[in-house]
Amino acid sequence: MTNLAYRLLPLLLPLALLRPLPALADNAFVTDAEAPTPSSVREGTRWQERATPPPPWPEESDLIEFELDRPHAGFRYFIDGRHLQIGDDGVVRYTLVAQAPSGARNLSFEGLRCTPRGTYKSYAYGAAGRFVLLDDPQWLPIDDHDHERFRKALWRHHFCVPRGFAPRPRKDMIRSLQGRIAPLQNSGFLTD
C-alpha cells in the first residue's frame, strides 16, 4: 500500500460502515415490526359479565356469620347462605350484612371475582326491606384497608380456591363461612 492509501484509510473506513450489509438487508426478522405468531395461537374469548337481578331480602335464619382474622371495631358480618351463588360468568354473588355494635345493619348485594388480587362490585344496597340498584357499578380492586377487610377475608378464605383463581364449590363456601374448614385448608397448603 502506498503512503497515500494509509492516509485515506481513516477517512474511507467510516464511509464503508455506513453502507448496509447485504446479510442484514435480506434478514426478515430485522425489518419486521412485529414477530410472527405461531398458527397454534388462538385469540381467547373475552370475559362477559352476566346480568343478575338482586336476590330476595334475606331471612334471619339464612344468615351465616363469619369471623375476621382480627376484630373489626365491633362489627359483625353475615352472608345470606341461601342466596349465595356462582354465576356462569365465574362471579360469586352474595348478600352481605354488616351489623354495627348498636345493632344497626347495612345490607349490600355484591359480586366478587377470584382474580389474582381479587375484585368486587356492589350492585345494590338494602333499604326499607328491598334492594336499590346502583346506576353504574364498577369492578374495584379489593384493598387491604381496614374498612374492607371483610372482602379480603371472603376472597382469601371463603369464596376462592387458594392460588387457583376460581370460585370454590358452593358447598365448600358454606362450610368455610360456618368455620367447618380448618385454617390450613383455606391457605392453599396441605394439612398435617
From TrEMBL:
Q: Does the keyword Signal apply?
A: yes
| Domain CNP1-like uncharacterised per the UniProt entry, residue ranges | 43-178
Q: Does the keyword Zinc apply?
A: no
Where does the record place the region Disordered?
A: 34-60
Keywords annotated in UniProt:
Signal
Extent of the signal sequence: 1-25
The entry's protein name is: CNP1-like uncharacterized domain-containing protein
